[in-house]
Amino acid sequence: MFQKNGHNHGRCIISAMKIATDLCAERGVRLTALRSHVLELIWQSHQPVGAYELLDILKSERRNAQPPTIYRALNFLLNLGLIHRIESLNAYVGCDTPHTNHNTQFLICSGCGAAAEISDVRLDKAINALAKDAKFSVKHRSIEVEGQCPNCQVS
Amino acid sequence: MFQKNGHNHGRCIISAMKIATDLCAERGVRLTALRSHVLELIWQSHQPVGAYELLDILKSERRNAQPPTIYRALNFLLNLGLIHRIESLNAYVGCDTPHTNHNTQFLICSGCGAAAEISDVRLDKAINALAKDAKFSVKHRSIEVEGQCPNCQVS
DNA sequence: CTAGTTACTGTTATAATATATCAGTAATTC
DNA sequence: GAATTACTGATATATTATAACAGTAACTAG
Prior knowledge:
The structure is a homodimer. By secondary structure, the first copy, chain A, is α+β, with helices and mostly antiparallel strands. Chain A has helices at 9-27, 33-42, 51-59, 67-80, 121-133, and strands spanning 83-86, 91-94, 105-109, 115-118, 137-148. In chain A, helix 2 (33-42) packs across helix 4 and helix 3 (51-59) packs across helix 4 (67-80). The two termini of chain A are 20 Å apart. Chain A binds chain B through residues 1-2, 87-88, 105, 107, 109-110, 116, 118, 120, 122-123, 125-127, 129-131, 134-150, 153, and chain B through 1-2, 87-88, 105, 107, 109-110, 116, 118, 120, 122-123, 125-127, 129-131, 134-150, 153. Strand 5 (137-148) of chain A pairs antiparallel with strand 5 of chain B, so a sheet runs across the interface.
């Protein structure tokens, strides 16, 4: 769901980082300084952010950062489910429920750019039903809905 | 829905081109030789095809074709709904129902690469419902489901 | 603890997708 | 037939992503 305009975003970041640390410990994989840093950068907002945008910020601290630097970190985080890729934007956004096996959907606001991750069971069931009708075996879903979030709607 | 393996694809092409001609006439826009040609190329199969792949084919006939050549034609066709863009593939596929105001979904086979356009009302309703819950006003949907089509499933 | 191995990062180059801009040509309109 | 609008040509460049190889850090077995 979309965050309220003045929400305490610091908490979102702290929580996300703790979830990531725990998940990596649990899985026995290394959340290196670089990966951790990239994840923090992604979590600076609820707006999906592009790889090169991240790279530019990263460069101000690691001036030798190159595209592979960022893409490796992104792929690591994607594989763990700590971030999602928004296909229609070529951008990346944090996920605060990486542990749950989520068939999620995104509502993307064209006003403020924020993306809300939804996990709607009705929708998921509808997809399963239509796939069954088509005798199609589902592997991956990319459900992205663009429009205006409550904060950005002019009434 | 997915086409059967040995279907008469010539008919798909002829039908699509007629639909396009009619639609352009109705809208008073010009289906120029270039645009018509690009549409035909897209309709050579039910597999979404990339812009540069189209460009390469186009070049064998118009050797001065450049990226803008193909992107202009694609944008024209997209605006009319004669083709769709598959975001998760950066590729384009023909639409045989451009006149209907369609909130469609795509089933994309990772085996053969074919994309089936579905217009499932349950799914559409589910999206409307979840958007309403989130007080989100929907403008555009991108629903892309990847998996195996009936023809490609190993049983 | 140290040699061997695996995982991670640095670095350079390049691939793949898409758009901006200005000039010229064809079609439509008045 | 002149003016306007729409379309195409042509060059340049922006944006997103990956390949490949070298070097370094971390882990693992003995």
